[in-house]
Amino acid sequence: xxxxxxxxxxxxxxxxxxxxxxxEMALYLAKAGVKLCITASKDGKAYEDTSNxxxxxxxxxxxxxxxxxxxxxxxxxxxxHDCIEKFSKIDVLVxxxxxxxxxxxxxxxxxxxxxxxxxxxxxxxxxxxxxKGPFIAAKYVVPHMIKNKFGKIINISTSSQxxxxxxxxxxxxxxxxxxxxxxxxxxxxxGTGVDVNVLLPGxxxxxxxxxxxxxxxxxxxxxxxPTVMNQAILWLVSDESNGVTGGRFIGRFWDDLDAxxxxxxxxxxxx
Length: 271
Fold this sequence. Notes:
alpha/beta; Rossmann fold; seven-stranded parallel sheet; 7 helices
């Protein structure tokens, strides 16, 4: 997909933009000409390397990186202020930051941990990042978007199988919550000019959410490349998706026009 002119100069905030899917989306959007804010939960090589790459593409004037935990309300409030102060607006929020099952067990994908065996602190950290984090980011960004009568929120999710897979609690259920929340937000924001959609890879992806291994693979087999989201995120950020809200889009199937949008979940039956 060739980026349209609407993407150039668009201000995008990506949480967890320093590694994995967030990093790939950030680099791809930077090359398309957006202005970019990213967050990282901690300083270190991954954050520094990604920041340097993005700054080389965008220049200092079009890039802002901050080390802040997405569950830190005051920190995210400051970040929102800093992004708006630098770029005068935030057009797009990509809620990508998440903690995975490695906090529970380094062998979670081969030896499933029963939910009652999970460490309470690790469980809470996953919930804080994956549920509280997107809420806090949206809480501070959305009023600004409503004022501008334009905005896009893109919540990064996982496959439906992962949401209920054995040994994947609380990570899987946290993403089920995020998807339900996304639909609720879309309803709350009806008529404001702010769209809310869900984007997921469509299978296990080669990121550090999975333990390192010579034969690294997800529970469902082969791994997708982190670049699997690129074409989809480009479309969702552009004007081509204006007015599309409450959707669930799958990066893996982006070349298949019928399969890219999970129509089964567009209008679910309430039983």
